[in-house]
UniProtKB/TrEMBL annotation:
It is found in: Cytoplasm. The keyword Metal-binding applies. This is tRNA threonylcarbamoyladenosine biosynthesis protein TsaE. Keywords: ATP-binding, Cytoplasm, Magnesium, Metal-binding, Nucleotide-binding, tRNA processing. It comes from the Bacteria. It holds the Pfam family TsaE. One of its GO terms (cellular component) is cytoplasm. Belongs to the TsaE family. One of its GO terms (biological process) is tRNA threonylcarbamoyladenosine modification.
Amino acid sequence: MSEESEEFFVPSGIGLGAVGELFGHAVLPGLLFLLTGPMGAGKTSLAAGVARGMGITSRIASPTFLYLQSYESSGGPSSLPLLHADWDRVAPGSEDLEEALVSGAEDRVTLVEWGEKLPASLVASFSLRVRFLLSIPRDREGRLLKIFWDPATDRSEDLRLMRGTVRTLLDKKLPSLSRKG
């Protein structure tokens, strides 16, 4: 089964954090979010929203110089911890960072900025995968967001249920979010 995708235009008035927050309400253990897009597209804003939706009250910042940052939930809907990573400056074959990324992954949510740089073998080690592709429109107003749901796992039913929950939340909480295509 191949990836399924959805595309949205996120107006500046809504913001990527609000979208991420709804995803944070629907997370499951073992989930990997891969965030891809140019500098300034909103990857960290989306990540901060996911964390808020998970009940994490700590300030979420880009882990550019830390590479990996762990956060504990304060009792949100999932009560799962979050590992937030930035793979932009990670050298290929950085075994310590790769091991830290996959160690304990089934008991948390993992979110990787610059996810396109993550080796395919690491991506495949996660049981649930969702990829966000962010882009900036020519007029620089709002953001384009394409979401890829990867059902090629033994947990495809979990992913289908999560996708349904997210769709319901988006329709209910952000009805002005416009779907593309």
